[in-house]
Automatic annotation (TrEMBL):
It comes from the Eukaryota. It comes from Dovyalis caffra. This is rRNA methylase. InterPro entries: MnmM_MeTrfase, SAM-dependent_MTases_sf. Transmembrane segments: none annotated.
Amino acid sequence: MNCLSRRLIPNLTLNFPSINLSFYSKPIFIHQKGKLTSNTAITSSIYYPLSGVEDDLVGYVFGKKKATEVAHLIWKHVVRNGDTVIDATCGNGYDTLAMLKLVADESGRGHVYGMDIQRDALESTSSLLDESVPLKEKESVTLFSICHSRMEEIVPENSPVRLVAFNLGYLPGGDKKITTISETTRLALEAAKKILIPGGLISLVVYVGHPGGMEELETVEAFASGLSVDSWICCKFQILNRPLAPVLVLLSKREIAETQ
């Protein structure tokens, strides 16, 4: 009789030329028949939301995809029509627009909640949406001029959030002295952790080339490292020979069935 076994994979780092793909420890469930050997075929009994993105990751490894592009491609494997999602740092609106295209449907249930502390960012986001989507579709986006650490205040109670996305750094084309900071980012991650549904994703592109950027990355890494391996899958994508290149961090909340 087939049985369900649980194995713990140790911390794993895959070193491609100049690329560091770091995965935190995570248990996986596999079916096996009889004794497991090196020739035993292993098939996962659980669907992981990050499966099916091999081509996208290969593009990143060989310099064909940017961290932001990989993030957007991975979102497509997580977000569904009608979902509630959060853009925690609107910037110039490109993430907000990408999210809207993923959640919008004829039912109008899907919604994007966007926030930024800079008025210029919200105006840029609104203008991009005006140029890119019909007015009816834009109604599925609500923008707030607040710190992302307060995201719990703007999402309606009992709204299942599938994705929370961050671009950490400064507003492109804006005042480089105004940046996200470690303390409010930590609080925002704690808030995102609370409201994200099983199967959801916290996505962060961390820009480290400005003062405080490396410290903020360390804050994100510390938060991710402290998440339970029973409930979360956390990984980081970093180009080693470009130390100031953006770093992509993905925190995937396990489906409930995965922990049973």
